Records
---
Amino acid sequence: MGFFSKDIKSLDDLFIHMLREIYYAEEQIERTLPKMIGEATDPQLKAGFEKHLEQTRGHIDRVEQVFELHGVKAKAINCPAIDGILEEADEVSGDVGDKEVLDAALIASAQAVEHYEITRYGTLIAWARQLGRSDCANVLAKNLKEEQATDRKLTEIAENRINLLAA
Ligand code: FE
């Protein structure tokens, strides 16, 4: 279904559509993180990815909760945006030989993922509030908070150490 498909007639339809996309995205991220954990050399980065894998499982559970609160079946639909980000991440890491540079590349990829999620959750929260669903907004806000914290942590690891080692 395209973004401007005629099947989307209301903000409520659009909300569900985007919820299905972020559901797909979270599942793809859960599938990709183990590979990134395997590739990371820096122990703090590895541990950060491990923690985020655990959090991602919680994000999937929360998105399922929102489907339930909203009274629709949990269903994922393809999201080409996250596929592109993850594909590019895979290509770049395959091209990097040096370990420290690979860590820097992994952080860059992970932050692209986090920023994608941050924009999606921000929109979903605003729409949920507009639709009078503060219950859904509150659950989604927990995911947003963890994505933001992860993004900040990645910046910290990059700026304190990885970028220096990679340079
Ligand atoms: Fe997430």
---
Amino acid sequence: MTDRDPVGFLGREVAELVAADLDWKLRVLGGPSTPRCTVDGRPVLMFCSNNYLGLSNHPRLKEAAIAAVRSHGVGSGSVRPIAGTMDLHMELERRLARFKGAPASLVYQTGFAANAGLLPQLVGEGDLVVSDELNHGSIIDGVRLSRAERAVYRHADPADLARALATAEEHAPAFRRILVVTDGVFSMDGDIAPLDRIAAVAHDHGAMVYVDDAHGEGVLGDGGRGIVSHYHLTHDRVHVEMGTFSKAFGVVGGHVSGSPELVQFAYNKSRTWLLSGSHPPAVVAACIAAVDVLEQEPQHVARLWALTRRFKQAMVGLGFDTGASATPITPVIVGESATAKRMSERLLELGVFALPIVFPMVAKGKARIRTIMNAALTDDDVGAAIAAFETAGRELGLI
Ligand code: PMP
């Protein structure tokens, strides 16, 4: 017999997080994710959801989901390769490829599943993967699952990417394959990767290029087609365009777009795709409707940018530091973690829901309120939010 407590660490580790104020205190929405919503019973303006275009409560998406439940039931019954591919899944992939201007697309259960399932298949032992230092955690996990050599380049810095590639190749000139991977829009800072220059450097080294455009879709490019469209690139230069339906598309689900060979390779090899159940019909139908809305209602993307410009100008005008943001993600950088937390609490009291992002998610001294604009906010809503930031900022001595 041992007196070891097999699960004692659970409570101990949570207590440590609570003591360090690093635990997640869940905020509960009492209804749909709309710009004016209820959080913990309090009416607020939503300034931190990824529902950029307001599609998660769009009538066309809701109707499509309800109709699919009636026609196809609530579950797909299987994983995609066995009996879980319905006509709806195939239609979504055709529609997405057309929207992206790509030869082919493949839908995963989530964006995380796409990165964690595909990256370790694209590179393995004897290969090299070179990654931006601020890439998303799902990329980091996908890379960790591979047995490839890893190198990191300075954030959004093509010259440092070239250096990292040259250094790695000097040490091991015989890499079988090389993969360069970057976020398209960086979720903590809202800056845009210089994908055109990254792709050019990669091309010089015969490397594959993989972009995670989770925060660029519905935002950048022609009609919100994403970062590949934004830079007028093609899928023979950016070989894997990965994204998610969980943000601007307003639903849930990951996807990759590229060549037909990429898609066939991805679904034959990604363990997350092969071994985990496929989307229920309602989700797939809502995603198809989201693509329809993006194609047919361009006003949402235009509105998102109009509000983004107004909010950014106001924040800078008030004297806040918004970093390198060039997208509807606008960080309001306040410095210390405790200040960011106080600011977020005060904003909530003033009716604005925007969460603090603190170390270790961002560097020490760079704590921030991360705001995300929403096309469905009214002009008055944005005016009220700006006033709340001004009040909280002055009270905390930030401006
Ligand atoms: N990549 C990035 C850059 C993201 O921000 C996210 C979501 N936080 C993901 C991937 C994962 O996407 P999903 O929510 O579809 O799993």
